[in-house]
Design a protein that fits this description.
Shape: globular
Radius of gyration: 14 Å
Helix content: 25-40%
Low-confidence stretches: none
Mean pLDDT: 90
Largest sheet: 6 strands, mixed
Number of helices: 5
């Protein structure tokens, strides 16, 4: 990723947007880890999944307003991989506001992407706090529609 304006929409791909099966936080994390680990940018899927669960044990990544952003920077990831899970009925994610999570943005990054990583996290938070965007992302019928909302919201 280059410095300059961040094109957040370029980090999202239709194949990495899924409607999660009903369940709990652990099940959602496992489902998203499995999808993320399939990326060729993740050289060691098992290490990535372990790191996600270890990170989540430290403190919940449920940031509030119905969103969680589980994330890690580890050596076995070459470049950003973002997987998004939607939970129609919400998942208890131990979020800071106590509300169920309906959108989960899982981020895998290289341990060499520290300054860029902060920009990506900030851009996602800004995106989901944009009035109406969260509802549109949840209502998108297909992954292509979800990505279209992102492209529109992230010019």
């Amino acid at each position: 990723m280059k410095s300059g304006p961040l094109d957040l929409s370029s980090l999202f791909h239709e194949g990495a947007v899924v409607d999660l099966r009903p369940g709990d936080k652990e099940g959602a994390l496992r489902e998203l880890c499995a999808i993320t680990a399939e990326s060729p940018r993740v050289r060691d899927g098992a290490a990535f999944c372990r790191a996600i669960f270890e990170r989540e044990k430290l403190v919940s990544t449920g940031i509030g307003i119905g969103v969680a952003i589980p994330h890690v920077k580890i050596p076995s990831v070459e470049d950003y991989v973002i997987t998004v899970g939607r939970a129609a009925h919400g998942i208890d994610f131990d979020a800071i506001d106590g509300l169920p999570v309906r959108l989960i943005f899982m981020i895998a990054a290289s341990d060499q992407q520290t300054s860029e990583f902060v920009r990506v996290l900030a851009a996602i938070v800004k995106l989901i706090k944009t009035p109406g965007i969260q509802a549109r992302l949840l209502e998108a019928a297909m992954p292509a529609d979800f990505c279209a909302v992102l492209r529109e919201a992230c010019p």
